[in-house]
């Protein structure tokens, strides 16, 4: 969940794009394309299938339930990623969410940048990487990173997007609570912490679009990173592009539109004392096809303190501030290593 803010220089370069739906990557980042030696190297990546977990097994008796819970915990330890089916979110809602998302990104770029006719908080719309100094730091994507406080309780019946987002977020929030309850239980911990600290209004939806990128054979749709939350729930299309690190090597995740992808975030790695792994991942842009995905970030309030035997205590707000400062200075996120306890 690396945040990139639209600074004034960035916005001053978009005034001529009023009739285009796409952000002006080529004009804004023209100077970066002169140095192709700094382009990402993402070729020859083997494909993998994430562990698949059928959540219906939780309802088939105690033995099946225990086995399913164990598989969730093992995947979170060994992969930091897994996928789930029979997750309780109907296909019709997923399809409606995607349809509204596609229509949203089809709006003129100037409307998206100005938050025109949208009820999202200022700064929700983000694109590219304003502070990028080379192509390896450039994300060829646009997104609406929306606080659920912007959509929960919406009574605007004429705004189909807000209505669908609220329905989707409510159901994904329930799924997230179920999964963190299981993961806490497998550590022998109680889950009241998550019920108290991770209410729906502290979580986020990120609607992603990765435009086709014909400039180079390879380009990051989003640069390598870990997520800063407890868990992320991802619904992606069939295009592919998501890649993750496993045993020191990058692997391309085979897309499965019927499943939701779950990954562990930094906060859960710290809370679990490194039992569950927050794994580096990225998205590679496609030269021919655009890609859409929707990510739900299961987050606590900013004043929530994470206690750990591996990392010093820190609040979520402190962690987010440190990430933003590091991105501004170095161009990338450092994350949990910043908070390691020093041993002598």
From TrEMBL:
It holds the Pfam family 2OG-FeII_Oxy. One of its GO terms (molecular function) is metal ion binding. It catalyses: gibberellin A1 + 2-oxoglutarate + O2 = gibberellin A8 + succinate + CO2. It is an enzyme of class 1 (oxidoreductase). InterPro entries: DIOX_N, IPNS-like_FE2OG_OXY, IPNS-like_sf, Iron_ascorbate_oxido_reductase, Oxoglu/Fe-dep_dioxygenase_dom. It comes from the Eukaryota. Its EC number is 1.14.11.13. Keywords: Dioxygenase, Iron, Metal-binding, Oxidoreductase. GO terms for biological process: coumarin biosynthetic process; gibberellin metabolic process; response to molecule of fungal origin. Residues 201-300 form the Fe2OG dioxygenase domain. Belongs to the iron/ascorbate-dependent oxidoreductase family. GA2OX subfamily. This is gibberellin 2beta-dioxygenase. It comes from Salvia divinorum.
